[in-house]
Amino acid sequence: QIRLVESGGDLVQPGGSLTLSCAASGFTSEGYAIAWFRQVPGQEREAVSCITGATHDTWYQDSVKGRFTISRDRAKNMVFLQMDSLQPEDSAVYHCATNLVRRCLVREAMDYWGRGTLVTVSS
Q1: pLDDT digit string, tens, across residues 14-31
Q2: Checking DSSP bridges between strand 3-7 and strand 18-25, what pairing results, if any?
């Protein structure tokens, strides 16, 4: 079965760093776009970053540009989100998701979601 599982969320201080992992199973994720979303309860879900299939082009929301980096490990069938210079407004549940297409279409509905990992940025 197709599955995405996030890990790596933690409590960090402002200015700190975390690396989130998205482990894919049931399919070869390298051929498809994987996106990271975040959501705070009561607020709108926001697309944060995306990496395309095959060519591995990347996209970032303006609010995280220059601070976050998305990448893949083909052998491990995983996608990562390196988060630096974290700020309190980055606190959210972070989900990885895919709709099994090559291009990053973050405004479209995703077919497969992980259950999320919690990131809390606080002093």
Answers
A1: 999 999 999 999 999 999
A2: antiparallel
